[in-house]
Amino acid sequence: MNEPVVVDLATSSVRALNAELHAPGAKSYEVRSPQGAHAIAAGVDSEITVDVRGHVGYYAAGMNDGGRITVHGNAGTGVAENMMSGTVRVTGDASQSAGATAHGGLLVIEGSASMRCGISMKGVDIVVGGDIGPMSAFMAQAGRLVVCGNAGDDLGDSIYEARIYVRGTVGSLGADCVEKQMRPEHLTELRDLLAEAGLDHDPAQFRRYGSARRLYHFTSGNTY
Amino acid sequence: MSTEPTHPVSGDGRSSDYRHSRGLRESATFDRATIAGIQRAAATGVYDIRGWGAKRPLPHFDDLLFLGASMSRYPLEGYRERCDTDIVLGDRNARSPLHLATPVTIAGMSFGALSAQAKEALGRGASEVGTSTTTGDGGMTPEERGQSTHLVYQYLPSRYGMNPTDLRKADAIEIVLGQGAKPGGGGMLLGQKISERVAGMRTLPAGIDQRSACRHPDWTGPDDLAIKILELREITDWEKPVYVKIGASRTYYDVKLAVASGADVVVVDGMQGGTAATQDVFIEHVGIPTLAAIPQAVQALQELGLHRRVQLIVSGGIRTGADVAKAMALGADAVAIGTAALIALGDNDPRYAEEYRELGSDAGFYDDFQDGRDPAGITTQDPELAARLDPVEGGRRLANYLRVLTLEAQTIARACGKAHLQHLEPEDLVALTIEAAAMARVPLAGTSWIPGA
Ligand SMILES: Cc1cc2nc3c(=O)[nH]c(=O)nc-3n(C[C@H](O)[C@H](O)[C@H](O)COP(=O)(O)O)c2cc1C
């Protein structure tokens, strides 16, 4: 494969970078000196590879649709928000709302993720090597969230059809989120997700959580 | 369900004579609608959810009058002398601002709340007169994109159906923080309307009662919103105007913060603004009237030195060309209509009176948009009902109505001596009531008194 095209944000701008990534002249890019800038590699819509060497600000790889984007560092709020397809990997930690509302693709956070990880997720797969913060998978509609460490409070509050797998402890479960049985098909999909993420935990160590579906209809019994 | 009285109140001469002769007196506090509401709550244990906007009487555009020209002002001749109506929206940052032929735009109403036919009809009508239409809480349909020359794509807390491909197809992006009918509330769509297609677009199980988030999932507060707007501009290569829509409440501060966050256009929706489904208590008791919101928004923009640079779109109870002209005279650059557009398509048409009655309502009263059984085929996902609305005919009716609104507004502007609708100014207005004078910040008619000024 050809050498990646290097874009150094110490001398170039995020605007110039994203304009190039939206009409790419190359297959692979390396972004240097990201300096925590926002919206780095947002709106990628082709199967290019982007390696960002350093920490990024908000909404890195936002709405990614096909790109293979790796942040070699930490990511700010909303990394890979509303991703459609492709892969986003963060080698460090991620801030709030990682993978928010994402419809597809795979988001891997090798470190830990803060609050609201996977909020309103709509089909994405998220694998977190470490812990996740409170209110994660709030209103999660579809997709799978795998947490190799612990989950904070109110996990899966008002969850719809997303599936959550947690290896460690859960601070507390949110409204209408319950522990569910691990059936063979769940162990299989979890093994596949861990393998895709490059992690080798034993799926048998995880517990599964999902919706009790008690909030699906407005009734006089609803206490929320 | 609605809070309409269960017994007939009109066309019921005999019983009102009867009440009169007995000296029966209805309580102003516990009127029949209130009593019916209590009875309904006691029977069901569920709050009332309905469509439409606030129904209570409120200070409104009807409480304002234009002065017109005479000796001290010079009117323009109808038909012959120019009175332009075109507007530009979003030229502060975007490479492709919107150029509309009339300042009356179609507000965001979701596919899901409305049938695909209704969305298509809105697109057709708007395009015919050169104005914009807006998606809603549920994504963009090919029907409306195909039929809309200028399509504004809403970016809501739920992000249902949000995707970068449709985002790039849009002509503008509207970040929705709230609606006038329910500032502080998220969307609702009841199971009857979550058809397979609607469910698929929203990634929800079909048939559930959908409640969507009231806050955006990945930003909180104006500092974050500024970064969010930056991201959306980056994704779309700075091509499209970014609107921010707010429900009218603390409008002065909210508009300042929306502009500080980078909005190209601010949309302010007053409490009369329509909704597809919201708790009645929310519709009637949260937010401020459109009339009270406009001067606050204009003041905020003026203090920032950005009035007319950042455009202001006002909605909530716009019905006539007079309302359009009054909103613009108070400083709006454009208006948006929801309820009135649906009526133009055929909502609440007397020809469906019998069917409205079968649903426990009546033509002129029907507000059960949440139920999905709309005989006019507009607020439904039932294929048979929806098929009753012919999108071509509906579009033609809407275009007619939009032309009338524009012509009426022009009539008033010419009478005030203005060669463009945007030249109308507060100085052209007086108020009929003290409340309206205080809210609109124009003098009480015949006086120079602006209460609170
Ligand atoms: C049936 C219906 C559906 C609506 N859906 C949305 C929506 O999805 N998003 C939104 O921001 N506002 C929505 N609204 C509010 C309108 O965009 C607009 O603010 C309001 O209708 C303006 O007031 P008016 O109805 O008095 O003209 C909806 C209104 C109606 C009547």
UniProtKB/TrEMBL annotation, chain A:
It comes from the Bacteria. Gene3D superfamilies: Glutamate synthase, alpha subunit, C-terminal domain. One of its GO terms (molecular function) is oxidoreductase activity. PANTHER family: TUNGSTEN FORMYLMETHANOFURAN DEHYDROGENASE, SUBUNIT C (FWDC) (PTHR39673), TUNGSTEN-CONTAINING FORMYLMETHANOFURAN DEHYDROGENASE 2 SUBUNIT C (PTHR39673:SF5). This is N-methylglutamate synthase subunit B.
From TrEMBL, chain B:
One of its GO terms (molecular function) is glutamate synthase activity. Keywords: Oxidoreductase. The keyword Oxidoreductase applies. One of its GO terms (biological process) is glutamate biosynthetic process. Residues 89-346, 375-418 form the Glutamate synthase domain. Residues 1-21, 124-145 are annotated as: Disordered. It comes from the Bacteria. PANTHER family: ARCHAEAL-TYPE GLUTAMATE SYNTHASE [NADPH] (PTHR43819). Belongs to the glutamate synthase family. This is N-methylglutamate synthase subunit C. It comes from Pseudonocardia oroxyli. The lineage of its organism: Bacteria, Bacillati, Actinomycetota, Actinomycetes, Pseudonocardiales.
